[in-house]
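thread from #wetlab-drylab

HS: before we spend reagent money on co-crystallization trials with calcium ion, can we at least see a predicted complex? here's what I'd submit
DV: go for it
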Amino acid sequence: MFYRLFHLQCRFFIVAIGISIACWFISSSVLAIETARPNVILIMVDDLGYNDLSGFGHPEIKTPVLDQLASEGVRLTNYYAGASVCTPSRMALLTGCYAVRMGWEQGVVGYKMGLRDGLHPVAVTMAEVFQEAGYVTAMSGKWHLGSDPPCRPHRQGFDSAYYIDKSNNQTRQVWRDDEVVETKFVNRHLTEQFTEEAVEFIGENSRHPFFLYLAYTAPHFPVQAHPDWKGTSTFGAYGDVVEEVDARIGQILSTLSVQGIEKNTIILFCSDNGPQPGQAASAFPFRGMKWSALEGGTRVPCIIRWAGKIPAGRSTEQVVTAMDLFPTLCDLAAINLHDSLGRLQQSPDAEQSMALQHLDGRSVAKVFLGTKTSLPEREVLYWHGMGELQAIRRGAWKLFLNRKATVSGLGVDGELPIERHEALEDLAQGKGPVLFNLAEHKDELFDYSAQRPDIVKQLSELAERKLDETRQARIPLWQPKN
Ligand SMILES: [Ca+2]
């Protein structure tokens, strides 16, 4: 009897130790995952052109912080914003889908789109996926994806949001979640304010994985320099504003350093579309500006740094789009996006009749990590800001379905040498589609359509097929019922 009792006690003791050890293993491995998960800071500026950073070739504007960031990570020379204007570009960035899949037809919130229209709450955003994965999520900056309560950022996956709901030329209000906290912001102070908010958020969350979307309104018009930067650049107010953004990003990086988390934080910098016509911004050597399907409309600077993980000092010509960032950042953070999307779309809020979110983006994590130099070719679709699909790219080939769209470079043409003006006139006089080779001619002025009818046919068919596909699977634009 005594022996049996002793034996049972021993067994109980051994099981208890076993459970304790197992618990220790589980908790320590959870802790290991917790500390290993990288923070993500996604910085997007507004209307900055391809040529507007010194590291991307600007002769006067000085952006030492971003140039240094690029030297510590990867500089992307074939990065495309999700669309040529603000609202659809932000839809694409945050959902991983072409904006037409989100019901976008044309324009931006408050211009060609209703003031109360926006990204439908059933759309799953990058912020929702990071939030579900246990990240603390926040945004600071410009939203422009809907102003009505269901569309606001803190209902689209951000735990907290400090933002202006439209462009800085469309509103004077600054919001914190559902409250207006400033009724007449001073435009020249916005970059400072959004930075201060971001710095505070990083300081408060440095011991927990976080996802921060810092969407500066600069250098979108009206271009007004902060008093501390006024006259500091040699490129007028536009140069002052871009140089301030660069310095403010320096403050973000210093904060990471002070908190000791610079190695565990992925920083991604990009612009939302090309230069606004009439501003001092430049997309050189590309033609086309904001709204346009020419390269300058969506080819913008992009830089990613993840110290110690992404090999430094590289430049890639791999075609990467804003839609790729959602799956790529999830991949880098070891989040299973497929599973997360499945769970989030089945939430009680989702309206069953709506299409499942089909991502147009793909992960390019291996290119960033340096384990692959390139990925299989795939197409890029170019919509005009007024909603028409105008062009398609695959490899170096870019086909404009209608040559009229290629003629106006919106101001950049003035920078072209005189012989290129003749090329532009020839282009205007031709008929049918236009085929460019971006590897040969960055300025989209030499037409190969007569020489390569095979490529014209292939790309025309591909464009038609992709257009049909994106129109079939769509979540409607959110619009108020009354
Ligand atoms: Ca913009």
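DV: The chain has twelve helices and 18 strands.
HS: ok that's useful, forwarding to the group
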